[in-house]
Amino acid sequence: MIKQSQFSIYDFLGYIIPGSTLIYSYIIIEKINTDHFESIEKTLKDFGNINAEGIFIFIICSYIIGHLLSFLSSLTIEKYSNLKYNYPSKYLLEIGERSHYFKKITFKKGKITKDLKTNFWRLIIGILLLPIYTIDLVFNVKKNYTKSLDPFLRDQITLKIKRLLVKLKIEVSDFDLEKHDFHRIILHHSFEKNTSHQFKMINYVALYGFLRNISLTSIILFWVYTYTGLKNFDFNNPIDVKILTIVFILGFISFVSFVAFVKFYRRYTLEGLMLTLIDEEI
């Protein structure tokens, strides 16, 4: 077992860097918005003149903001990914049908209200993640980044999962992987048993958490400057190309970070599945 330090790599990648990125990005882009591009150099020099006390406060603020970003990104970015593409453990093994973002309305007593409420909250998430949702329609993340494994690997991994449950004396009356959260068992078993792979798995968690938070950071900045552009919009004056450029760049960064998150989320899941497959004791 890897000896965990009290301050891990996830604290840096998952919390401090996204938090500081949000703070720095807002300050720098605000300078671009209010002054000129020439002021960026002066702003960066001002950052270099911060004293030890200021650095400590900045790190604490970044860490706190990073935790908030992590929580919110799990409710938005990761939730959106799971709803639209299904969990990686499911689409890798081709378990069940591919997810559809909006739930099909069931016209039955007591169900229609629940389905409408579910779709309402999914609509809210979709609107909040508008840049990702829009660009995804063009580049089709589901087709390019959520491919299933080949039939041989799928069959062998499913067989190993069944054997693992028996070995761990976990009783399952119906061996239907679609109904059960089997992946948690696989990951815990793989992590505990394969010490040589623990660092790799930790890195995957840190990377997909980092990219998930960076994606949300870009989304927040996207809406901040979309609001600024709309607030200052005037039909009698030309469109502010500077703000429009910033908005497009932030929207694109949010999508690229989201795609990278999906990739490492998939790799992390695949690592656990493959470690289960090559376990000779199962």
Automatic annotation (TrEMBL):
The keyword Transmembrane applies. Keywords: Membrane, Transmembrane, Transmembrane helix. This is Multisubunit Na+/H+ antiporter MnhF subunit. It comes from Wenyingzhuangia heitensis. The chain crosses the membrane at residues 12-29, 50-72, 120-139, 201-223, 243-265. It comes from the Bacteria.
